[in-house]
């Protein structure tokens, strides 16, 4: 066995560089002696001094320590923890420049991966206020012996350690302002070292916290959690094992809701269901999807990866029929209930794993005019071949990852006879590098 090579010592002195572009994860990119260096806290066009934090064979990493020449897009981060916390990566860039960078990321992916470009660029979809938008989150919890206290929040950038946070400006204020009270609560529990996570779920009216616990609560622990909920207007749940163990600490299970007022809809969801984190942007996104899809009274529409019916029900207000397909049986059942509660009778729902063979699925024996796809990060590659066979002439594709949208766009255009008519980005996660996008395909 060969000897392990000693780790090279990183240069201690700051290095000067001019930033060329922004990486997909929000870091400035430069080249030193022909080698790419990714620098946190630097923006395109800036001249900076940085220190190396990691050297690797293919690329290096660093942190900006001095901005010698600032970009006109640079702004002062609102959060005092921005330099440490890994929850955000772009607070130092103006919101307008953030969304422009995300648009460029999308179109670079189209060109590089899919070898396609849209015929029309959609204007970016943004909200008026890019703060306090996040209604779903998983917060890490850790009792740190060296500090003698509990930390609640997100992890440090590039580290497994939790950042020492006082508040979070991107979380909805109902929870973002509670990080220190939550830490104090957990510190008071007998099982303070067996609470690794708090899951946040906020609807239009209620805020709910799911405490992951690895040991049984004492009666006094339960009382403290219940009192915290009353004091801070939070519904308290616990989770003792897998997702099926999520339950209220006291009383009956609680359903959260969010409204889609343009369609006279109320969507009911359980605390650990998938929902969009940014409810205001979600409403705008549905509106854009409807504009692109153009459902008509005679249309039959297929909604793949339909979840709770976030798109299914608005489409059903306009179309003759909508068929929703989703891999999670629980979500399918709740989608059916949502339709019933909203007086919608022209939807049908099916449970199917859309990443496996679908030849025996009954809905594949139907024909459709239009389709909406809203897949997870892995994309929708496995179902694309079925779309032209079903007679679908118009597809609206909602994506949470530009790489798989670009890949699937290439498949639809080069293999299945569709045109990429329009595409653009939507700022679902301001101040982060996450890119949400939407595209229209026509045959």
The chain-level mean pLDDT equals 95
Q: Tell me the Rg in angstroms.
A: 24 Å
Determine the CATH topology of the largest domain.
Rossmann fold
What would you call the shape? globular
Number of helices: 9
Lateral arrangement of strands in the main beta sheet: 7-21-22-20-19-16-17-18
Please name the CATH architecture of the largest domain. 3-Layer(aba) Sandwich
Main sheet summary:
8 strands, mixed
Distance between the termini: 59 Å
What does this structure look like?
This protein is an alpha/beta fold and 443 residues long. The chain has 3 domains: 15-74, Beta Barrel (OB fold (Dihydrolipoamide Acetyltransferase, E2P)), CATH 2.40.50; 100-129 and 278-442, Rossmann fold, CATH 3.40.50; 136-254, OB fold (Dihydrolipoamide Acetyltransferase, E2P) (Beta Barrel), CATH 2.40.50.1070. 22% of the residues lie in helices and 28% in strands. The protein contains 9 helices and 22 strands. The chain has an 8-stranded mixed β-sheet, sandwiched between helices. Helix 1 packs across helix 9. The longest helix is centred in the first third of the chain and has 20 residues, at 95-114. The mean pLDDT is 95.
